Amino acid sequence: MPDPDAPIPLTTPVLDPEVVTRSALDQGWNVIVWDDPVNLKAYVVWVFQSLFGFAHEKATRLMLEVHNEGRSLVATTDREQAEYYVTRLHIFGLQATMEKVEG
Amino acid sequence: MASLHIIDRGDDPHFRIILDVGERAVLQGLPERLETLLLHPDRSPKVIDRLFPPAHHDPDREREHRELIGSTLFEERRESLKAFAATLAIPPDGPLVTLDVDLATINLWLHVVNDFRLLLATELGIEDNDYHERPPEDPDAYESFVLLEHLSSLQYMLLEAVSG
To answer: Which CATH architecture is the domain A20-100 placed in?
Structure first.
């Protein structure tokens, strides 16, 4: 298993690890990752770190939320950025959807 | 089983992957197998659905999403498969093949190997986390199961490398 404390080199520039950026013109879109029996836990953590720039601890927490709860909200952002994240998550082989923030 | 060595951990990390020629041959067969499915999605719609899952629950938004980036996703996967195959296309050194690669290649391998795992798992009908405990009895399915487990080990090795 990978060293859980070791940093992972980023493959994609990341602007904000918390990924809570909403434009004034877009009320926001949630990016949801869904559980999958095939993707390795360590791989999901790596994807979260690589794509979103999350620290290992946060990436692991979100991965466990996906695993245990069946889904996890990994980002809330504007529509264009949400489309980008979902597309990259699909390329990585994760099951992800985006939902408009209600209200 | 392949081995992976970190040659340089600096700003421009480099790695060495050593495969035996038999393992290389198995890996070389996977891009063509997956690309065939991409080009003929009707042959295995479940695999296609798994590799291209919906982005929206709303049908209209999903249709719009597909029209916008569906072909991009398709072409990007094909390009990744070609790039992966190219990394394997070097002459062997006796019974072994040595690949000197950079971080971008390790990252490429990580998600292409994952695509192969998704392909095999979907064909095997895996739907729960405990599949490791129930190897299939059918010989062909068992062969795919063993390959899936092998690719899992390879993916762990790649993850260890990028984790330092």
So the answer is: 2-Layer Sandwich (3.30)
